Amino acid sequence: MSDSFPSVLDRIASEIAATPGRGRPADYIPALAAADPNRFGMAVAELDGTVHGVGDWQQPFSTQSITKVFTLALVLAQEDDELWEHVGREPSGNPFNSLVQLEYENGIPRNPFINAGALVVTDRLQFLTGDASGTLRDFLRAESGNPDLTFDLDVADSEAAHGDRNAALAHFMASYGNITCSVPELLDQYIRQCSIEASCGDLALAAGFLARHGIRADGSTLLSRSRAKQVNAVMLTCGTYDAAGDFALRVGLPGKSGVGGGIIAVVPGRCTVCVWSPGLDERGNSVAGVAALDRFTTHTGLSIF
After folding, report:
1. pLDDT (mean) for 29-34
2. Fewer CB in 10 Å around end: N or C, the chain?
3. Residue 254 burial by CB count (10 A; 0-12/13-18/19+): exposed, middle or buried?
4. DSSP code at position 71
5. Are 2 and 9 in contact (CB under 8 A)?
6. Share of residues in the chain with pLDDT > 70 (%)
7. Bridge partners of 280?
8. Catalytic sites, residue numbers
9. Per residue in 167-199, pLDDT tens?
10. How far apart are alpha carbons 38 and 23 in whole angstroms?
Protein backbone atom coordinates (compact mmCIF):
# COMPACT_ATOMS: atom_id res chain seq x y z
CA MET A 1 0.00 0.00 0.00
CA SER A 2 2.84 2.44 0.77
CA ASP A 3 3.90 2.37 -2.88
CA SER A 4 0.43 3.56 -3.86
CA PHE A 5 0.11 6.45 -1.39
CA PRO A 6 1.83 8.99 -3.71
CA SER A 7 -0.42 8.09 -6.63
CA VAL A 8 -3.53 8.16 -4.43
CA LEU A 9 -2.58 11.61 -3.10
CA ASP A 10 -1.95 12.92 -6.62
CA ARG A 11 -5.34 11.59 -7.72
CA ILE A 12 -7.09 13.20 -4.76
CA ALA A 13 -5.39 16.55 -5.38
CA SER A 14 -6.49 16.48 -9.02
CA GLU A 15 -10.08 15.64 -8.06
CA ILE A 16 -10.20 18.37 -5.41
CA ALA A 17 -8.79 20.94 -7.84
CA ALA A 18 -11.64 20.18 -10.23
CA THR A 19 -14.32 20.48 -7.54
CA PRO A 20 -16.02 23.90 -7.16
CA GLY A 21 -17.04 25.37 -3.82
CA ARG A 22 -14.37 25.50 -1.12
CA GLY A 23 -16.26 27.24 1.69
CA ARG A 24 -15.06 30.32 3.56
CA PRO A 25 -12.17 30.84 6.01
CA ALA A 26 -12.99 31.44 9.69
CA ASP A 27 -13.90 35.12 9.72
CA TYR A 28 -14.57 35.43 13.46
CA ILE A 29 -10.80 35.22 14.03
CA PRO A 30 -9.49 38.16 11.97
CA ALA A 31 -6.00 36.68 11.63
CA LEU A 32 -7.49 33.66 9.82
CA ALA A 33 -10.04 35.50 7.68
CA ALA A 34 -7.63 36.34 4.84
CA ALA A 35 -6.55 32.74 4.19
CA ASP A 36 -6.92 31.56 0.58
CA PRO A 37 -9.61 28.84 0.43
CA ASN A 38 -8.00 27.43 -2.72
CA ARG A 39 -4.90 26.30 -0.85
CA PHE A 40 -4.73 22.53 -0.41
CA GLY A 41 -2.23 20.14 1.14
CA MET A 42 -2.36 16.53 2.27
CA ALA A 43 0.12 14.17 3.92
CA VAL A 44 0.16 10.53 4.95
CA ALA A 45 2.60 9.31 7.63
CA GLU A 46 3.27 5.59 7.92
CA LEU A 47 4.06 3.92 11.23
CA ASP A 48 7.81 4.04 10.58
CA GLY A 49 7.76 7.81 9.96
CA THR A 50 7.77 7.69 6.17
CA VAL A 51 5.75 10.67 4.90
CA HIS A 52 4.04 11.14 1.54
CA GLY A 53 2.62 14.53 0.62
CA VAL A 54 0.92 16.52 -2.10
CA GLY A 55 0.19 20.20 -2.68
CA ASP A 56 0.83 22.54 0.25
CA TRP A 57 1.63 19.71 2.65
CA GLN A 58 4.74 21.45 4.00
CA GLN A 59 3.03 24.83 4.50
CA PRO A 60 2.48 25.68 8.19
CA PHE A 61 -1.07 26.67 9.10
CA SER A 62 -2.99 27.50 12.28
CA THR A 63 -3.78 24.19 13.97
CA GLN A 64 -6.52 25.56 16.23
CA SER A 65 -8.73 22.76 17.64
CA ILE A 66 -6.57 19.97 16.24
CA THR A 67 -4.33 20.57 19.26
CA LYS A 68 -7.14 19.36 21.53
CA VAL A 69 -6.30 15.77 20.58
CA PHE A 70 -2.74 16.15 21.83
CA THR A 71 -3.60 17.92 25.09
CA LEU A 72 -6.15 15.19 25.80
CA ALA A 73 -3.50 12.51 25.22
CA LEU A 74 -0.97 14.33 27.40
CA VAL A 75 -3.42 14.55 30.29
CA LEU A 76 -4.51 10.92 29.96
CA ALA A 77 -0.83 9.94 30.01
CA GLN A 78 -0.53 11.40 33.52
CA GLU A 79 -3.96 10.73 35.02
CA ASP A 80 -6.05 7.59 35.22
CA ASP A 81 -9.79 8.17 35.02
CA GLU A 82 -9.76 11.41 37.01
CA LEU A 83 -10.11 13.53 33.89
CA TRP A 84 -13.47 11.94 33.09
CA GLU A 85 -14.83 13.34 36.34
CA HIS A 86 -14.41 16.82 34.84
CA VAL A 87 -15.48 16.28 31.22
CA GLY A 88 -17.81 13.87 29.42
CA ARG A 89 -17.37 11.67 26.37
CA GLU A 90 -20.60 12.20 24.46
CA PRO A 91 -21.37 14.18 21.28
CA SER A 92 -22.74 17.59 22.11
CA GLY A 93 -25.35 18.19 19.41
CA ASN A 94 -24.67 21.92 19.84
CA PRO A 95 -22.18 24.42 18.38
CA PHE A 96 -18.60 24.00 19.64
CA ASN A 97 -18.72 27.24 21.67
CA SER A 98 -22.21 26.80 23.13
CA LEU A 99 -23.00 27.78 26.71
CA VAL A 100 -26.37 26.03 26.78
CA GLN A 101 -25.43 22.53 27.93
CA LEU A 102 -23.18 23.74 30.74
CA GLU A 103 -26.20 25.22 32.50
CA TYR A 104 -28.11 21.95 32.37
CA GLU A 105 -25.13 19.75 33.22
CA ASN A 106 -23.69 21.64 36.19
CA GLY A 107 -20.56 22.94 34.52
CA ILE A 108 -19.39 19.56 33.14
CA PRO A 109 -18.72 19.87 29.39
CA ARG A 110 -20.13 17.18 27.14
CA ASN A 111 -16.77 16.15 25.59
CA PRO A 112 -13.09 17.21 25.41
CA PHE A 113 -13.31 18.70 21.91
CA ILE A 114 -15.96 21.37 22.27
CA ASN A 115 -14.43 24.59 23.57
CA ALA A 116 -15.65 24.16 27.13
CA GLY A 117 -14.26 20.64 27.31
CA ALA A 118 -10.95 21.67 25.80
CA LEU A 119 -10.64 24.43 28.38
CA VAL A 120 -11.08 21.82 31.12
CA VAL A 121 -8.42 19.58 29.55
CA THR A 122 -6.01 22.50 29.21
CA ASP A 123 -6.72 23.41 32.82
CA ARG A 124 -5.80 19.85 33.89
CA LEU A 125 -2.58 19.96 31.82
CA GLN A 126 -1.67 23.33 33.29
CA PHE A 127 -2.24 21.95 36.79
CA LEU A 128 -0.08 18.90 36.03
CA THR A 129 2.80 20.65 34.22
CA GLY A 130 2.74 24.35 35.04
CA ASP A 131 3.04 25.16 31.32
CA ALA A 132 0.33 23.49 29.24
CA SER A 133 1.06 25.25 25.97
CA GLY A 134 4.82 24.79 26.29
CA THR A 135 4.39 21.10 27.10
CA LEU A 136 2.19 20.68 24.03
CA ARG A 137 4.64 22.56 21.79
CA ASP A 138 7.56 20.45 22.98
CA PHE A 139 5.61 17.24 22.42
CA LEU A 140 4.66 18.26 18.87
CA ARG A 141 8.27 19.22 18.14
CA ALA A 142 9.51 15.85 19.34
CA GLU A 143 6.92 13.75 17.49
CA SER A 144 7.10 15.71 14.24
CA GLY A 145 10.88 16.10 14.27
CA ASN A 146 10.42 19.82 13.59
CA PRO A 147 12.28 21.92 16.20
CA ASP A 148 10.96 25.15 14.67
CA LEU A 149 7.30 24.36 15.30
CA THR A 150 5.92 27.12 17.52
CA PHE A 151 3.15 29.60 18.29
CA ASP A 152 1.82 32.23 15.91
CA LEU A 153 1.59 35.20 18.26
CA ASP A 154 -0.40 37.30 15.75
CA VAL A 155 -3.11 34.63 15.75
CA ALA A 156 -2.93 34.38 19.53
CA ASP A 157 -3.36 38.16 19.89
CA SER A 158 -6.27 38.09 17.43
CA GLU A 159 -8.02 35.33 19.35
CA ALA A 160 -7.38 37.04 22.69
CA ALA A 161 -9.04 40.20 21.38
CA HIS A 162 -12.12 38.23 20.30
CA GLY A 163 -12.28 35.63 23.08
CA ASP A 164 -15.26 36.77 25.15
CA ARG A 165 -17.20 33.53 24.58
CA ASN A 166 -14.31 31.37 25.78
CA ALA A 167 -13.88 33.63 28.79
CA ALA A 168 -17.57 33.21 29.57
CA LEU A 169 -17.28 29.43 29.32
CA ALA A 170 -14.26 29.38 31.63
CA HIS A 171 -15.85 31.66 34.24
CA PHE A 172 -19.07 29.64 34.16
CA MET A 173 -17.22 26.36 34.75
CA ALA A 174 -15.10 27.99 37.45
CA SER A 175 -18.32 28.91 39.26
CA TYR A 176 -19.04 25.17 39.49
CA GLY A 177 -15.54 24.40 40.76
CA ASN A 178 -14.55 22.67 37.52
CA ILE A 179 -11.54 24.92 36.80
CA THR A 180 -8.37 24.81 38.92
CA CYS A 181 -6.26 27.63 37.44
CA SER A 182 -7.15 31.29 37.42
CA VAL A 183 -9.31 32.06 34.39
CA PRO A 184 -6.86 34.60 32.88
CA GLU A 185 -4.01 32.06 33.17
CA LEU A 186 -6.15 29.35 31.60
CA LEU A 187 -7.28 31.54 28.72
CA ASP A 188 -3.70 32.55 27.96
CA GLN A 189 -2.59 28.92 27.87
CA TYR A 190 -5.58 27.83 25.77
CA ILE A 191 -5.15 30.62 23.23
CA ARG A 192 -1.44 29.91 22.86
CA GLN A 193 -2.20 26.23 22.43
CA CYS A 194 -4.64 26.92 19.58
CA SER A 195 -2.22 29.34 17.89
CA ILE A 196 0.42 26.70 17.18
CA GLU A 197 1.42 26.56 13.52
CA ALA A 198 2.25 23.23 11.90
CA SER A 199 2.16 21.65 8.46
CA CYS A 200 0.25 18.61 7.26
CA GLY A 201 3.51 16.66 7.41
CA ASP A 202 4.18 17.80 10.98
CA LEU A 203 0.72 16.85 12.21
CA ALA A 204 0.54 13.52 10.41
CA LEU A 205 3.81 12.55 12.10
CA ALA A 206 2.80 13.98 15.49
CA ALA A 207 -0.44 11.96 15.52
CA GLY A 208 1.42 8.74 14.72
CA PHE A 209 1.23 7.50 18.31
CA LEU A 210 -2.52 7.05 17.84
CA ALA A 211 -1.94 4.75 14.86
CA ARG A 212 0.76 2.90 16.84
CA HIS A 213 -1.67 2.26 19.73
CA GLY A 214 0.01 4.74 22.09
CA ILE A 215 3.68 4.32 21.11
CA ARG A 216 5.68 7.48 20.43
CA ALA A 217 8.07 8.03 17.55
CA ASP A 218 11.08 7.11 19.71
CA GLY A 219 9.51 3.79 20.74
CA SER A 220 8.52 4.86 24.25
CA THR A 221 4.95 4.50 25.49
CA LEU A 222 2.78 7.60 25.85
CA LEU A 223 -0.55 5.81 26.27
CA SER A 224 -1.63 2.26 26.92
CA ARG A 225 -3.42 0.58 24.06
CA SER A 226 -6.68 1.09 25.95
CA ARG A 227 -6.04 4.83 26.42
CA ALA A 228 -5.13 5.27 22.74
CA LYS A 229 -8.40 3.55 21.88
CA GLN A 230 -10.24 6.06 24.08
CA VAL A 231 -8.73 9.02 22.25
CA ASN A 232 -9.52 7.54 18.84
CA ALA A 233 -13.07 6.74 19.95
CA VAL A 234 -13.74 10.30 21.14
CA MET A 235 -12.28 11.60 17.88
CA LEU A 236 -14.70 9.43 15.91
CA THR A 237 -17.77 10.50 17.87
CA CYS A 238 -16.90 14.13 18.72
CA GLY A 239 -13.96 15.25 16.58
CA THR A 240 -15.66 17.29 13.85
CA TYR A 241 -17.91 19.59 15.87
CA ASP A 242 -21.60 18.98 15.21
CA ALA A 243 -20.91 16.97 12.05
CA ALA A 244 -19.28 13.88 13.57
CA GLY A 245 -21.98 11.54 12.32
CA ASP A 246 -21.66 12.78 8.76
CA PHE A 247 -17.87 12.57 8.98
CA ALA A 248 -18.02 8.99 10.25
CA LEU A 249 -20.43 8.09 7.47
CA ARG A 250 -18.35 9.70 4.71
CA VAL A 251 -14.82 9.05 5.93
CA GLY A 252 -15.01 6.18 8.42
CA LEU A 253 -11.96 7.19 10.47
CA PRO A 254 -11.32 8.90 13.80
CA GLY A 255 -10.67 12.54 12.95
CA LYS A 256 -10.23 15.99 14.48
CA SER A 257 -10.73 19.24 12.64
CA GLY A 258 -9.73 22.82 13.37
CA VAL A 259 -11.11 26.11 12.08
CA GLY A 260 -7.72 26.86 10.53
CA GLY A 261 -8.81 24.36 7.87
CA GLY A 262 -6.84 21.33 9.00
CA ILE A 263 -8.10 17.82 9.77
CA ILE A 264 -6.13 14.87 11.14
CA ALA A 265 -7.37 11.31 10.73
CA VAL A 266 -6.09 7.99 12.08
CA VAL A 267 -6.01 4.53 10.55
CA PRO A 268 -5.09 2.46 13.63
CA GLY A 269 -2.23 0.08 12.96
CA ARG A 270 -1.59 1.59 9.53
CA CYS A 271 -1.02 5.35 9.14
CA THR A 272 -2.13 8.88 9.97
CA VAL A 273 -3.38 11.51 7.55
CA CYS A 274 -3.54 15.30 7.68
CA VAL A 275 -5.25 17.52 5.15
CA TRP A 276 -5.47 21.32 5.02
CA SER A 277 -7.64 23.73 3.08
CA PRO A 278 -8.85 26.92 4.82
CA GLY A 279 -12.39 27.11 3.39
CA LEU A 280 -14.92 25.89 5.98
CA ASP A 281 -18.51 24.70 5.87
CA GLU A 282 -21.19 26.07 8.20
CA ARG A 283 -20.12 23.68 10.97
CA GLY A 284 -16.47 24.72 10.93
CA ASN A 285 -14.93 21.83 8.98
CA SER A 286 -12.75 22.17 5.88
CA VAL A 287 -14.91 21.55 2.80
CA ALA A 288 -12.03 20.30 0.66
CA GLY A 289 -10.48 18.49 3.63
CA VAL A 290 -13.54 16.34 4.31
CA ALA A 291 -13.92 15.64 0.59
CA ALA A 292 -10.25 14.63 0.35
CA LEU A 293 -10.49 12.24 3.30
CA ASP A 294 -13.68 10.77 1.83
CA ARG A 295 -11.74 10.08 -1.36
CA PHE A 296 -8.75 8.72 0.59
CA THR A 297 -10.77 5.99 2.30
CA THR A 298 -12.62 5.24 -0.93
CA HIS A 299 -9.48 4.94 -3.06
CA THR A 300 -7.40 3.02 -0.50
CA GLY A 301 -10.08 0.96 1.23
CA LEU A 302 -8.56 2.01 4.58
CA SER A 303 -11.31 2.48 7.15
CA ILE A 304 -12.13 1.23 10.62
CA PHE A 305 -15.39 -0.20 9.29
Report:
1. 88
2. C
3. buried
4. H
5. no
6. 98
7. 24, 286
8. 65, 68, 190, 241, 259
9. 999 999 999 999 999 999 999 999 999 999 999
10. 9
292 three-class SS: helix
Q: How many CB atoms lie within 10 A of CB 91?
A: 18
pLDDT tens-digit map of 210-265: 999 999 999 999 999 999 999 999 999 999 988 999 999 999 999 999 999 999 99
Q: How confident is the model at residue 3 (pLDDT cuts 50, 70, 90)?
A: low
DSSP, res 264: E
- List C-alpha distances in Å: 178 to 136, 190, 255: 22, 16, 27
* Overall residue count recorded for the chain in this entry: 305
DSSP letter string, 157-194: HHHHHT-HHHHHHHHHHHHTT---S-HHHHHHHHHHHH
Phi-psi sector, 261: left (phi>0), alpha (psi -120 to 50), beta:
left
Q: Where are the alpha helices (DSSP H) in the chain?
A: 5-17, 30-33, 67-76, 100-104, 115-129, 132-144, 153-161, 164-175, 183-194, 200-206, 208-211, 225-238, 244-250, 287-300
Residue 96 confidence (pLDDT) above 70: no
